[in-house]
Amino acid sequence: MEWEAVIGLEIHAQLATKSKIFSGASTAFGAEPNTQACAIDLALPGTLPVFNAEALRMATMFGLAIDAEIGRTSVFDRKNYFYPDLPKGYQTSQLFHPIVGIGHVDIQLDDGTTKRVGVTRAHLEEDAGKSLHEEFPDMTGIDLNRAGTPLLEIVSEPDMRSAAEAVAYVRKIHALVTNLGICDGNMAEGSFRCDCNVSVRIKGEEKFGNRTETKNINSFRFIEKAILGEIERQIDILEDGGRITQETRLYDANKDETRSMRSKEEANDYRYFPCPDLLPIVIDEEYIEQLRATLPELPDARRERFVSEYSLSDYDAMVLSADRYLSEYFETAATAAKDAKLAANWVMGEVSKHLNQTDTAITGAPVSAEMLGGLLQRISDNTISGKIAKQVFEAMWAGEGDADQVIEAKGLKQVTDTGAIEAMVDEVIAANQPQVDQYVNAEPEKRGKMIGFFMGKVMQASQGKANPGQVQGLLKQKLEQLV
Amino acid sequence: MALDRSDVEKIAHLARLQISEQDIPEYTTTLSSILDLVNQMQAVDTADVAPMSHPLDAVQRLRTDEVSEPNKRDHLQTVAPAVENGLFQVPKVIE
Questions:
Q1: How confident is the prediction for chain A on average, in pLDDT?
Q2: Contact B88 A34 (CB under 8 A)
Q3: pLDDT tens digits along A85-137
Q4: Which of B53, B59, B93, B95 is the best substitution to test chain A (most A C-beta atoms within 10 A)?
Q5: Angle formed by the axes of helices A468-482 and A444-461, nearest 10°
Q6: Which DSSP string corresponds to A187-211?
Q7: DSSP-assigned states of every residue in A143-161
Q8: What is the pLDDT of residue A466?
Q9: The domain made up of A418-482 is a member of CATH 1.10.10.410
Q10: Closest Cα partner for A104 from A92, A93, A89, A115?
Q11: What is the model's pLDDT at position A267?
Q12: Inter-chain residue contact A135 with B87, CB threshold 8 Å
């Protein structure tokens, strides 16, 4: 029997405002507990929420970026439930009239095709505080610094059919919100979280199977693993004749499995109603058009431009265009180096390798884009070879200066003086008589390959500094004279 | 519309209200009469009236995104029953 997975995702993106959605308390991450929770966030009697204009702007920008219907009138509703990290006893959210209506994003799949994924809606709401269960033996500690941080909840259609498609979608939304500058995208700090709704059905069937929701997964890799595991778990149950219970599950990264959190059948009774403390938010065409004019270049458009402007391959363009800061770095380096393809190779090669190894963000790279451009120029103008350039890059990464300083200090300048190279070539030919004899006696078409041996010797003698093109030319000339 | 006993028990549970057994009949009657009033209003023809989400015919004013609330933790926590290391303490909750 062939099974098919049906996946829909809810993404919570914390909006990068300075203050909270309904109060003037700071949203900065990592403060001492409860030092950024004011009377409004604590739901003390007599307080009134006032909506943050910046949260509205950011949500509207997202709507424009996914070509969605923007709610001209949107309304906050109360979602009622009791939990200690939600002091009001309800979460202020938007159910009936969200700020962002139906839109879509296009995702690129591994086979090179593009798939359109529908976005059902995106609405504004407030984040809850944090419950700390390990802090005390018999009590739960509550930190309300996060309470009231603005969230944009982005709900997809159940359009994805595999874990890989789901990850491609999450990456696309992540690229959008970070490029728009409306969310810092930091998954480890919880600024960007994902709930996965997964069900399976026999391929070809119309009806959806019962679904489970796996909550708060905080890395791209875990999203893929959690979905793969959940699909397998559901198929196993169904093939054994069981049925899937609709429930909320938690992903345990240590065990790489999901486990049941609570049954949803009776728990969900949120009794939504319009929040009487907040009036409807009304926006007009002028506001929308003003924001549309400020939309930055988005990853899809940038990818296409990288292909047409810099002649990059589709793959290179995709890798370099997704992240706003990585693409800025690439473009600056490409301009400074005056060679886009070389810059692309270095950004995706040495730079990315060093970032990964040292767990550094591109914005914190010790080698700036301008410095990299300077190094690449020295490859282009034959001051150094590509191989020596890697050595120079290491030194630059370690803070030993820019390319010219390192080349100077370490004496790595490529030898292009014909006389000096000729001397080394003569020396190598004289010192390796048996190989020279072989060369001379070999069939003419085999000699090309045999030059490699002499090339190696000369490069070794020059400590990698001889210009390889010149060495090859001279070797060929001199050896042919002996034939 | 008449509520029955189980409706009242469910509503009390959702609102986290502890109600005494003997009060349930009275709540059942009074809550049902509220719903009757709503039903009476439902009879009014509102076909040409746009639904309102708020009784005031006004729109939300917006606040500039500025941090205006300083740290008043010590003051705000004076009313909390239990505080430790800056955290509010509540009876253990584990999902």
A1: 92
A2: yes
A3: 999 999 999 999 999 999 999 998 888 889 999 999 999 999 999 999 888 88
A4: B53
A5: 130
A6: TTTTSEEEEEEEEEEETT--SPPP-
A7: E-SSTT-EEEEEEE-S-B-
A8: 83
A9: yes
A10: A115
A11: 57
A12: yes
Structure tokens at A352: 């990315």
Asked if the Cβ–Cβ distance from B92 to A132 is below 8 Å, we say: no
How far apart, in whole angstroms, are the C-alpha atoms of residue A105 and residue B45? 42
The H or E element spanning position A72 is none
Residue B26 lies in a domain: yes
Name the A residues in 244-283 with CB < 8 Å from any B CB.
Answer: 261-262, 269, 271, 274, 276, 278-282
Residue extents of the structural domains in chain A = 3-289, 299-410, 418-482
User: What residue in A sits closest to B17 (Cα-Cα)?
Assistant: A82
Return the CA Rg of chain A: 30
- Report the CATH number that the domain containing residue B13 is assigned in CATH: 1.10.20
**Are A139 and B84 an interchain contact pair (Cβ–Cβ within 8 Å)?**
yes
Q: pLDDT under 50 in chain A at which residues?
A: 264-265
Amino acid letter for position A105: V
Which range of residues forms the domain containing residue B19? 5-42
- Nearest beta carbon to residue B92 from set A97, A139, A262: A139
Q: Which residue has the tokens 């100077």?
A: A408
Q: Does A136 touch chain B (CB under 8 A)?
A: yes
Contacts of B8 (CB under 8 A, 6+ apart): B19, B24, B27, B28, B31
From B23's Cα to the closest Cα of chain A, the distance in A is 24
Instruction: Mark yes or no for CB contact B68/A97 under 8 Å.
Output: no
Q: Are A98 and A123 in contact (CB under 8 A)?
A: yes
Q: Structural domain tally of chain B?
A: 1
The ipTM estimated for the assembled molecules is 0.90
- Asked whether A58 and A296 are in contact (CB, 8 A), the reply is no
Domain presence at residue B47: no
Nearest to A86 by CA among A51, A125, A58, A123: A125
> Which A residues 23-62 touch B at CB under 8 Å?
23-26, 32-39, 42, 44, 50-56
Edge-to-edge strand list for the sheet holding B83-84: A130-132, A139-143, B87-91, B83-84
* Residue B23 forms part of a structural domain: yes
